[in-house]
Amino acid sequence: MAKTAMKNSIEPPRTKWSPDRRSVFLTAELVGGILTNSLALISDAAHMSTDAPALGISLAAMRIGRRPADSKRTFGYYRFEILATAFNAILLFMVALYIVYEAYERLQTPAEIESGTMLVIAAIGLVVNLISMRLLSAGKDTSLNMKGAYLEVWSDMLGSIGVIVGALLIRYTGWSWVDSVIAVGIGLWVLPRTWTLLRESMNVLLEGVPDGLGIEEIGASIRAKPGVTGIHDLHVWSISSGKTSLSVHVVSNGPPVTWPALVAGVRDMLAHDFEIHHTTVQVEDSPCEQAGELHDFTPEHAKTELQNE
User: Fold this and answer.
1) Which of 32, 48, 204, 206 is the most exposed place for a label (fewest CB within 10 A)?
2) Is the predicted pLDDT of residue 176 greater than 60, yes or no?
3) pTM of the prediction?
4) What cellular component terms from Gene Ontology apply here (predicted)?
């Protein structure tokens, strides 16, 4: 059976190191990129500059997301994590596009590059990124929000490796155009992965079916329960990573006295086979007005459906 891709969000340990120390280093890397005329260093610093606020937003979102539900926000604040994820993805996407454009401009007019300083700064950057990745690894598989932060640091780590390779090539061959090629490579590597993260977060915001779940398979499993003659108005969505909800209307040919057992059986099956624990199951002896193919939220729709029966 299908399983959800994410479990409940957790707060990764010791992540405070990451934003603070990375902010200090990105400033040094940016200055070093300007002094050495290295667009690859500037590109790496630009990506890292998005990480500092992104990691801070991610941690703040996780703390806000743990606030309890209230009378106005009955689902709590879990969705705040997804908003932060979408913001981070858009920010990284824009930076990557800008770097690709700047690399194209630099290819037209190559600049002399201080490869020695470039190599030292990139090596330090690699160490910083590896430490940050280690600290974030605990939460990357449990929260879409932390997955985004981890992805940004991962892209920075690859960027640092690319800058090191570029610095060595420039130092021993004199090919200054390699710097722009490395910058373009960093941007092109980040773009598709950023798009994937943005698509996943938008699917949650649009209350789409979570990845790893098939609504047809869920519907078939409910229909297979004894006493079920049909279902309609089946919805599956998630509030945040690993927090999936489901609602469905079940039509039964059994007497009303058997309906509580039917509801319990459907809910147990959904929890066991699909790991969906927040469910609302409504049992009916005949399809209600919401059984139409199109979903509407107006009273006129309900009246029309009743008149057509």
Assistant:
1) 206
2) yes
3) 0.64
4) plasma membrane
CA distance linking residue 187 with residue 81, whole number of Å: 25
How far is 88 from 152, CA to CA, in rounded Å? 9
Position of tokens 């160490």?
A: 127
CATH number of the domain that residue 251 is part of: 3.30.70.1350
Say which residue the tokens 């929890």 belong to: 271
Helix/strand number for the chain, H first, E second? 9, 3
298: which DSSP letter?
S
**What are residue 243's phi and psi, to 5 degrees?**
-115, 80
95 and 186 share one domain: yes
CATH value at residue 135: 1.20.1510.10
Q: What is the DSSP string of 29-65?
A: HHHHHHHHT-HHHHHHHHHHHHHHHHHHHHHHHHHHH
Q: CB of 276 within 8 A of CB of 245? A: yes
Cα angle 87, 90, 91 (rounded to 5 degrees) comes to 85
Tokens of 258: 């058997």
Domain that residue 274 falls in: 215-291
* Residue 300 in domain: no
For tokens 């722009």, the residue is 180
3-state secondary structure (DSSP) of residue 152? helix
Tokens of 289: 């007005």
Nearest to 27 by CA among 95, 130, 97, 121: 121
pLDDT, one tens digit per residue, over 73-121 is 777 777 777 887 788 778 778 877 877 787 777 777 776 777 788 888 8
Judge whether 107 lies within some domain: yes
234-291 pLDDT per residue, tens: 999 988 777 899 999 999 998 999 999 999 999 999 999 999 999 999 999 888 877 7
